[in-house]
Amino acid sequence: LFLLPADGQIYVQPLYRRNVTVAGQGVHNVVFVATAHNSVYAYDADTAAPPLWTVNLGPPVPASAYDNSDGPYTDITPAIGIIGTPVIDPSTGTLYVVAATLENGTYFYRLHALDTGSGAERFGAPVVIQAQVTGGGVDNVNGVVAFNALQHIQRPALLLLNGVVYVAFGSHGDASPWHGWVM
Asked: CA torsion 95→96→97→101, rounded to 10°?
């Protein structure tokens, strides 16, 4: 029906929610779109209008960070930020989204909980995603494998089940070392 602007590539599935009360703008049917540049947009689903709100969740990771001895990483370029489809909790009006960031030389994944009506963080979010397990993987240290945000990609869609958000990770182009993670 119409085109709407965004600041980067869109790998995620757009999400729709009807009758959202948007701060200072009334009630709208809303399409939520997230980009690889870590921006989340709330657009009126019925008109070609500017975003109802937009937030940026930090500097995305440049694809060049994943270059290795096999050459440049070209699966997703030029930035890797939000590439896994978010999930909406309709009971709380919360959009959960994971953003990859590079900050002062350190790589992070953070789970954000955004109010669908304003884009504001909720519930003490964002939370840095981190984990470790006992294991003998090639990158274990004293029998412990730690989640490495640089080595993993959060491409699968998020799952909300019984009030719990599940986040899964795979590899960047199968470049070792990597492990599948479900958190």
From this structure: 120
Residues contacting residue 91 through CB under 8 Å, at least 6 positions apart: none
What Rg, from alpha-carbon coordinates, does the chain have?
A: 17
Contact call for residues 36 and 98 (beta carbons, < 8 A)? no
Q: Is 124 exposed, middle or buried (0-12, 13-18, 19+ CB in 10 A)?
A: exposed
C-beta of residue 89 within 8 angstroms of C-beta of residue 164: no
Given the DSSP bridges, would you call strands 127-128 and 132-134 parallel, antiparallel or unpaired? unpaired
**Strand-pair partners of 27:** 21
Element (H, E) at 160: strand 159-161
CB neighbour list of residue 153: distance below 8 Å, 6 or more residues apart: 76, 80, 83, 100, 169, 170, 171, 172
- Joined tokens for residue 21: 């009360």
Q: What is the pLDDT of residues 62-83, one digit of tens each?
A: 988 887 777 787 888 899 999 9
pTM for the whole structure: 0.94
C-beta separation of 84 from 154 below 8 A: yes
